[in-house]
Every structure is written in C-alpha cells, then in structure tokens.
Inverse folding.
C-alpha cells in the first residue's frame, strides 16, 4: 500500500511517499481502508520531535528518531476486515475514529482499535467526518464532562475559528444560548454562523479588560496564548477555566478547582454522541482546505501558517 512515511524528525520535507506492507489488525482492531484523515497539532509534535510537557512528549514520539513512521491520527473510512474479538463492527461499515498515539492514517490502510471507532455520521462526507474525532472530542469533554453547563450561564470560547474552537462554539450552544466567541477580524462571520451570540475581535478588544464575567472560559488554542491567571478576573466567583494546553493538563490543573484540563481519549461513546448531534443538524464540520495524500508536506506547511478557519483534511 502507499503511505507517507518519515524516518527522522524535522520540517515537512522529511515526508516521503513509499510502498509499505498493509497493517495486520489485532484481535480488537479494525483494518480500515482510509478515505480521509486530518492534520492536528499532535502531528506537528510527532513530526518535529518537539520536547514538551517537561520532556514527556519524547516518550511518545521517540528520542533520537521517530517511534512510528506513519502519522495521521483521525480517520474516516471503510472497514476492510476485523479482529476476532471485535463485536461492534463488520466488513463494509463506514466508520470514523482516532488511533490514539499509534497513528497510521496517512496511508491507504490503517489499523484502529474498536474502542476508538464509531459509525460515521450519515450526513457527512469522509472529508468532513475525518475532522471530528480529534477536534470535537476535546470540546465535548471540556464542555460536557468536565463542567456542568446550564442554560443562562455564560460561556466564552477563545480561538473559536480553529478546529477545536469551531466545535466548542457549537457544543456549548447545546447547553446554553449565551456563547461568546473570540477570534480575529476575518473569522467573525464564521463564528456567527456557528451560533455565537457575541463575537469579540481580539485584534481590537481584549476580553479580559472589558469588565464582563463568564461562568466558563474555554481555551481552544493552548500554546500559552491565554492562561487562567490572565482570565481569572473575567470569571465569576465559581467560574472555571478549561484548556486544551497539554502542560496545563499535566502540571497545573490539580492546583486549582478553577482550572480543568482536557486531554481525553476518543471513544465510541463520545463519537456516538457527536454523530447524534451531527445527524440532528446541531453540529457541522468546518473544512478549510483538502490536500491529496501525496501533498501531505504542503498540508503541514499550510497548517503551520496558523489562523485557520476550521480544519485541514488529507484525502486518500
């Protein structure tokens, strides 16, 4: 099968198109014919071998060279075969899911655990479905499981136009109508179309200085763009700062009841919930650009420019 492999850390130039052996699924795995995958921040960490979280990321990526030669974590595709202990799926099922740290979706076929997969939303293309797992699940876990949002409470989404942020606006709207989005000027219309009742242009206004208070602030960007200390005066007395920042998740959330980190696995149950909302028309995927598998390096370069309106997809 064809796959994009990398054998050393570095820029997108390390990617090479090669013929490799088709993976053999384990007893609890699915062999999937990949139709689409997406580009996520974790792909950048694995490709560069960047040291984060006090060096913990190196345990996943490898120290001197990559542990895994094929990246790609999210997938949408068709089940080719199943392991002997798989009970929820059969050959021919259209599924979507996330591989976890094993990766492998930047190829014609990949193996994915049954527990990280679900039936694909019927009203989504594979390209749309491939952006959901790694971006919508953190938003879902942060806004539905980590806290208890009720109608009338105020929620602010920082980074509302990116992959996680665009889903966070829509998921917050499932529980309260009072959702504020923070994004740049050219993303305002997009944030409004997702259901934000108020949109703040961060290039013109600092929401932490406007005197307004929120029950929940969701940092959908990470990378230290904002922090609890900067946002705490914008939270109500019992307000909570929720973030996808990896280092906050690992090192800081235990220090304060006002901080919740999100680093949750993609599970069948979470994907099933998202599919129900998607098929009901309450959640949609925002795809900014689609690249063919052979142009994965260009997709990474495009991602690294930042300021995306949604997600980057790889069509296989």
């Amino acid at each position: 099968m064809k796959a994009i492999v990398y054998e050393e850390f570095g820029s997108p130039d390390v990617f090479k198109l090669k013929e490799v052996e088709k993976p053999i699924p384990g007893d609890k795995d699915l062999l999937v014919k990949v139709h689409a995958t997406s580009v996520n921040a974790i792909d950048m960490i694995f490709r560069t071998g960047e040291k984060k979280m006090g060096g913990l990321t190196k345990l996943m990526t490898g120290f001197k060279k990559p542990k895994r030669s094929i990246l790609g974590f999210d997938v949408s595709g068709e089940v080719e075969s199943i392991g002997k202990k798989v009970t929820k799926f059969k050959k021919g099922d259209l599924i979507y899911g996330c591989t976890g740290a094993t990766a492998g979706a930047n190829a014609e076929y990949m193996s994915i655990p049954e527990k990280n997969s679900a039936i694909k939303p019927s009203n989504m293309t594979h390209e749309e479905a491939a952006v959901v797992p790694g971006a919508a699940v953190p938003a879902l876990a942060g806004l539905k499981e980590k806290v208890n949002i009720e109608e009338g409470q105020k929620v602010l989404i920082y980074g509302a136009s990116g992959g996680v942020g665009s889903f966070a606006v829509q998921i917050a709207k499932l529980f309260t109508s009072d959702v504020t989005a923070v994004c740049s000027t050219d993303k305002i219309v997009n944030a409004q179309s997702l259901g934000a009742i108020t949109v703040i242009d961060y290039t013109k206004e600092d929401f932490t200085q406007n005197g307004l208070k929120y029950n929940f602030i969701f940092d959908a960007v990470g990378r230290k763009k904002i922090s609890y200390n900067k946002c705490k005066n914008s939270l109500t007395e019992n307000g909570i700062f929720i973030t996808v920042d990896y280092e906050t998740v690992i090192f800081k959330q235990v220090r304060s009841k006002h901080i919740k980190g999100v680093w949750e696995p993609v599970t069948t149950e979470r994907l099933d919930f998202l599919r129900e909302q998607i098929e009901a028309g309450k959640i949609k995927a925002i795809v900014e650009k689609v690249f063919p598998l052979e142009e994965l390096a260009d997709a990474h370069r495009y991602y690294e420019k930042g300021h995306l309106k949604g997600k980057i997809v790889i069509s296989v």
About this structure: The chain has two domains: 2-131+285-315, 135-261.
